[in-house]
Specification:
This protein has 139 residues and is an all-alpha fold. It contains 4 helices and no strands. Pathway: Porphyrin-containing compound metabolism; protoporphyrin-IX biosynthesis; protoporphyrin-IX from protoporphyrinogen-IX: step 1/1.
Length: 139
């Protein structure tokens, strides 16, 4: 079971890192309207990070968490609240994908406040998950 817990924590940390970075990169891409000095457009980098980094880590984190839940037979009110917070993180993940598509289509209106809102919300949700796991308040 320790390897499942390690896998879950490692993939969750990677997913959370990318989930914070995506809105920041979206915010940066929404601000710059001129051509970047990079060879690759920002939307291509965003799409790659979303599809090849964030999504696989999210799936691995959720699958390993589910396996940990089954193997360790975890129960408690804290777990329900944690799953609600993780569901919110999944919604933020999907919203990042939606904003990437909007950026690719040139629809920059509302992109900056939406990116900032997602970054704030996902940070609060991550903090909630950490606090619930460490304190297990309704155990």
């Amino acid at each position: 079971m320790p390897w499942i817990k390690f896998l879950h924590i490692a993939t969750l940390v990677c997913w959370c890192g990318v989930l914070i970075y995506l809105p920041a990169l979206l915010l940066s891409s929404a601000r710059t309207r001129e051509v970047s000095s990079f060879d690759v457009p920002a939307s291509d980098v965003l799409r790659f990070l979303f599809t090849h980094v964030a999504t696989p880590f999210a799936l691995l984190a959720i699958m390993s968490g589910t396996l940990l839940f089954i193997v360790a037979q975890l129960t408690g009110g804290w777990l329900v609240l944690k799953l609600v917070a993780v569901s919110g993180m999944v919604v933020c993940h999907a919203l990042c994908g939606w904003l990437i598509v909007r950026l690719e289509r040139g629809r920059r209106r509302g992109l900056m406040p939406a990116s900032a809102g997602i970054a704030t919300l996902v940070s609060l949700l991550m903090l909630t998950v950490v606090l619930l796991v460490l304190s297990k308040p309704f155990d």
